């Protein structure tokens, strides 16, 4: 029973990272209706920036807000410079650009900071949360940060004018434009927020898996699985999907002998296939009806 509870707790903690990535994926998908294959590499690059700031002696209290701000500005400018000119281009053009960004950010991380594995300290400290606790301080911190990010985003989209404008621009760009919403600016704002959320996910996962240019590749796949499982049209569903993927991954790796530690990643891919076959909109996604 203790092993089961430990795997649940560990699954919830890692699921918090997948939830952050799934949330970032969904925010960009709602903005441009495409999946950003470079999301993980962008998060890795932001994490390297945070690591560099730490090595220069800055405390986490300054490093985290600064890395998030840099990531937000970078994501905003990326949409303005790269994707705005090709917004009406064919889907394949967007896919090629995403693949190019994947390679560029991955190579840039390796070129600037090299490909050696670097340890990164936890912002929450080491050791168990309290004596004989099944949860470590870092795991508790990951869960708390994920829930905080979700709560802040929910309040932003629910109670602020900018948040409502972003929702309108994502749901119906033409109608939103007619009532004065700057759809292009809202799209860029969504890119910036997604990049900032990805930076949070990278900073949280780096102390667990160690920092290197390919750190987020598997994490992004788990994030895709969480987004598809929860629903690409539901940010809250994507978060729940991320937590579910983390729990399923841990339990299957522990209790299914065939899976073990080597086949955890195919579990995420299997979830993507199953959900797309039986419920393409995800568990909490809304069905889109078009009048013809």
From TrEMBL:
Where does the record say this protein resides? Answer: Cell membrane
* Any single biological process term in GO: amino acid transport
Q: Which Pfam families does the entry link to?
A: BPD_transp_2
Q: Which residues cross the membrane?
A: 12-32, 58-79, 91-113, 139-157, 183-209, 265-285
Q: What is its main location?
A: membrane
The topology of this chain with respect to the membrane is: Multi-pass membrane protein
Q: Which GO terms describe its molecular function?
A: transmembrane transporter activity
Which terms are listed as keywords in the entry? Amino-acid transport, Cell membrane, Membrane, Transmembrane, Transmembrane helix, Transport
One GO cellular component, as annotated: plasma membrane
**Source organism, top-level taxon:** Bacteria
Q: What family name appears in the similarity comment?
A: Belongs to the binding-protein-dependent transport system permease family. LivHM subfamily.
> What protein name does the entry list?
Branched-chain amino acid ABC transporter permease
């Amino acid at each position: 029973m203790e092993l089961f509870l430990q795997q649940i707790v560990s699954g919830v903690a890692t699921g918090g990272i997948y939830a952050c990535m799934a949330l970032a994926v969904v925010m960009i998908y709602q903005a441009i209706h495409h999946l950003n294959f470079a999301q993980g590499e962008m998060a890795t690059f932001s994490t390297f920036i945070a690591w560099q700031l730490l090595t220069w002696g800055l405390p986490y209290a300054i490093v985290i807000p600064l890395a998030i701000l840099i990531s937000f500005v970078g994501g905003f400018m990326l949409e303005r410079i790269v994707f705005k000119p090709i917004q009406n281009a064919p889907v394949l053009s967007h896919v090629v650009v995403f693949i190019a960004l994947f390679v560029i950010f991955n190579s840039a991380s390796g070129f600037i900071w090299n490909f050696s594995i670097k340890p990164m300290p936890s912002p929450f400290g080491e050791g168990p949360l309290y004596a004989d606790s099944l949860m470590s301080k870092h795991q508790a911190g990951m869960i708390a940060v994920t829930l905080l990010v979700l709560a802040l985003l929910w309040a932003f989209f629910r109670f602020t004018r900018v948040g409502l404008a972003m929702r309108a621009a994502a749901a119906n760009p033409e109608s939103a434009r007619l009532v004065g919403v700057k759809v292009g600016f809202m799209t860029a704002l969504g890119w910036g927020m997604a990049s900032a959320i990805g930076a949070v996910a990278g900073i949280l996962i780096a102390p667990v898996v160690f920092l290197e240019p390919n750190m987020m590749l598997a994490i992004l796949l788990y994030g895709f699985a969480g987004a598809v499982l929860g629903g690409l049209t539901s940010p809250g569903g994507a978060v729940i999907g991320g937590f579910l993927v983390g729990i399923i991954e841990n339990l299957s790796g522990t209790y299914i002998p065939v899976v073990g530690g080597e086949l955890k990643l195919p579990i995420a891919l299997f979830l993507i296939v199953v959900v797309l076959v039986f419920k393409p909109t995800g568990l909490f996604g809304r069905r889109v009806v078009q009048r013809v």
